[in-house]
Amino acid sequence: MPTLSTLTTLGPYHFFTYATLLGTSLYQTFVMTKVCYNALPRSAFTTLNKRVFPVYFQGQTLLLALTAATFPPYGPLSLRRSMGDLLPLALAGGMAVLNLVKFGPATQKAMVERGWQETRDGKKASDPDVSDEMRARKKAFSHYHAMSIHLNLVAIGGMVWYGLRLAARLDFG
């Protein structure tokens, strides 16, 4: 049974916030996206992603902020003094914010424009003889999507880096 002092310190909240951050990031990136891509028709997959990824990037950014805010013993004041912990969280946070404000929305916009171009042309983007407009839409989507994927992977790398530092401080004795 936890004691009152355990419940009033930041440690347990920090641990659960970080665990939620890493778990949701890994699950969304490596499980749900792949399952949905394989199970859904492209139009349904596109519709789902337009709804899921903005929420994912918002949640990831919020959980990173909460992880920093609950850094023991005094939140951001303590984190500021620990450059080894600040760096991986700042790296992950920077990548998450870039996806939230720049590359996530740009990817979504390019995906929608590619769909509209399919309607205008009467051809799928994957058809071999697409219009110049479709080639431009596909190129824009590929660029933004690749950036978003890479930023997300770098963010996860920062989270794992931080998790290794956190785990090294655990005392099971």
Automatic annotation (TrEMBL):
User: Where are the membrane-spanning stretches?
Assistant: 15-40, 52-74, 86-104, 144-164
Q: Which UniProt keywords apply?
A: Membrane, Transmembrane, Transmembrane helix
- Which Pfam families has this protein been placed in? DUF4149
The keyword Ribonucleoprotein is assigned to this record: no
- Subcellular locations according to the entry: Membrane
| Superkingdom | Eukaryota
Residue span, TMEM205-like domain: 17-114
GO CC annotations, alphabetized: membrane
InterPro entries membership: TMEM205-like, Xanthocillin_Biosynth-Assoc
* Protein name from the UniProt record: TMEM205-like domain-containing protein
Source taxonomy: Eukaryota, Fungi, Dikarya, Ascomycota, Pezizomycotina
